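[retry 2/3] Fatty acid cis/trans isomerase (CTI): previous attempt timed out, resubmitting with same input.
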Amino acid sequence: MSLRLWLGCLLLLIGSAVQAEAVSYQRDIQPIFTAKCVACHACYDSPCQLNLGSGEGASRGGHKLPVYNGVRVKAQQPTRLFLDAEGEAAWRRKGFHSVLEAEGNQAALMARMLELGRSQPLVPNAKLPPGLDIGIGRENSCPLPGEFDGYARKNAHGGMPFAVTGLSDEEYTVVQRWLEQGAPVEHRQLKPTPAEALQIEQWERLFNTPGARGNLVGRWLYEHLFIAHLHFEGGESGHFYQLVRSRTPSGEPVDPIAARRPNNDPGTRFSYRLRPIPDVIVHKTHITYPLSAQKLARVTALFFEDDWPVDSIPGYGAAHRANPFKTFQAIPAQARYQFMLDNAEYFVRTFIRGPVCRGQIATDVIRDNFWVFFQDPQHDLYLTDRRYREQTTPLLAMPGQFDEMGNLLAFWKTYRVKRNQYEHLRTQAYANKPADWAHIWSGNDNALLSIFRQHDSASVRKGLIGEIPQTLWWMDYPLLERTYYQLVVNFDVFGNVSHQGQTRLYFDLIRNGAELNFLRLLPASSRQGILNGWYEKGGQLKLLLAYTSIDATTPSLLDLGKADAKRAFARQLLARYAGINATPDPINRCQGSHCFRAGQPALLQRAEQALSRLTNRLGAGLPAIQYLPEATLLRVEAGDGRRELYSLLRNRAHSNVAFMYGESLRWQPRLDTLTVYPGILSSYPNFLFNMPAADVPAFVSALEQVRDNRDFERLVERWGVRRSHPRFWDYFTDLTRYLEETEPVEAGVLDMNRYENL
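[retry 2/3] Fatty acid cis/trans isomerase (CTI): success.
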């Protein structure tokens, strides 16, 4: 045998051995899913409920029934991964079908979906084919293996990855080889570090403190942290934990109780436990909360330093779930409110960003951008006045525990009456207590927050970002706690339309309460006029029929002058609290000729100076705004491998936000504005532009010159990254890397379900 022939045979044998090598799910497959599948297949809005953020999700497979259904008359059974079932057999009994198993002579459903996607490649960086529906409201077919041929005939571009540049040749080969090998899945095992294990032991001891006081505090803390991704000071990067109720005590494997809500009856003895979060971290559900030795001491001092009595342990009935103020009345209100204020950004994120991944029926109750701040505990009568607290507590109950369809309006009327009675009592109690600057809490950098809504999602950041908004919220303890319970603890994403309607209607009352509280800071004579500006047109009818009247007589102690009191207040707020404002904003609130952040290289300074020209302009004077989606990202390359990300956030103006439906009828596009944020300020980017820093002034000029769709398309052609762009995934996965570099604790994979076909 010649040497050449021998070498050829050897290479053939080596190649065959490599081909036969077993593919590892954790080593080879999950990284591909994380890079190119999790952006769509995670959370409740994952198409066909196929969650590819973990081996458990891949094994579970898909389901024809969507989680989001705004018109269902009956609540459906929860299908929460890692909670409502364990193991493939249990998920099959719940109606999930495999996407990994071959069926007869047919390849696995995933293999066929990938083949279909590969057989219909997209034209590079061109618009998607006409008629291809990529909206999040589309009806997904979710074909079973026996239905795939018919699906493929009707949906030539329905393969995976859906409506986006596909897998690389290498990735495709690896996934197909894994499927041919039977798609074995090994589950990820997260082991706490010694430092984490010690802190887990200490925190579980606190959560399970024996005795009546410990029982009540543990329950309250659980209901306020169950949704958090907990992380430890000094812990391993990327290690996050969830607080659950477990049938097993500390030291034994966690056996979680799958109650529908965190305040439902567990039905058995349990312990509060911390368990690792094993799936890929996705930004939209990644609501973090820090644990440390200092935090442990703080919580212990807040709840156990004073010797307060507990007469009885409350049950888990509907009345207790509806009114946490009554359920936990034994715990000092000062401790409860201060705990929430310490990490106010976390609590506002839970109900503003939320874990539900789609919530336009809730987000249309808020403005597209506004600021939030809080009432100081020493000046909150619910904390300081026992008689007032006893009077108002029964009126703070919230709807949503019962979901009979025929009783929706009756529930609404009952709870609206209670809420308005509470507002009348509140107005009377504060009538002789004029608001002052000292009444605004300023304890840490959580004291000032900015909210930006993007249609059916919203984001929260510390600090005051953007131009002075139309509305501001001043939240006291009853407002903050009710919002949290109504939208987080008591909200059931699997609930029916009655439950969801009650939730939305009551949140409208909470928003109105936060606005009315803010107005107390302004001169009495200015309040009604400002309120009327927030409730234009049909909103005036809502003011008359659903809300309470404002206090137009009690003076404010703030010196705000006579002209534009709201703007004067905002400017003084920025000046007085500059020391705790986590986000100074020279781009949107430029006070001179330098409209950029200090410390940036010259290229980025010029870029930010140009971007500042887009702010503080109405849609009537900047027509390009009407062509931009809700959240646009700019990836700016600054040389030497450095890049910076900016968010262009479209703030839609509305005549009012007082109604559940008809939002488009209340939209005022000529009053829309843009906010420029250095960084990523959305879990759901709608589009991405990529350009060298030197091109940013030209990009801004092009935006300023847009007059019609043709002008905007030319801009997209030059700098846009369409779903079909050959490097789409390079740019999209770089967004996660950017977050890991700039906000490592908050980083997670972004969602591309809302990435538009511009």
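[retry 2/3] Fatty acid cis/trans isomerase (CTI): The CA atoms of residues 494 and 705 lie 46 Å apart.
[retry 2/3] clearing retry counter.
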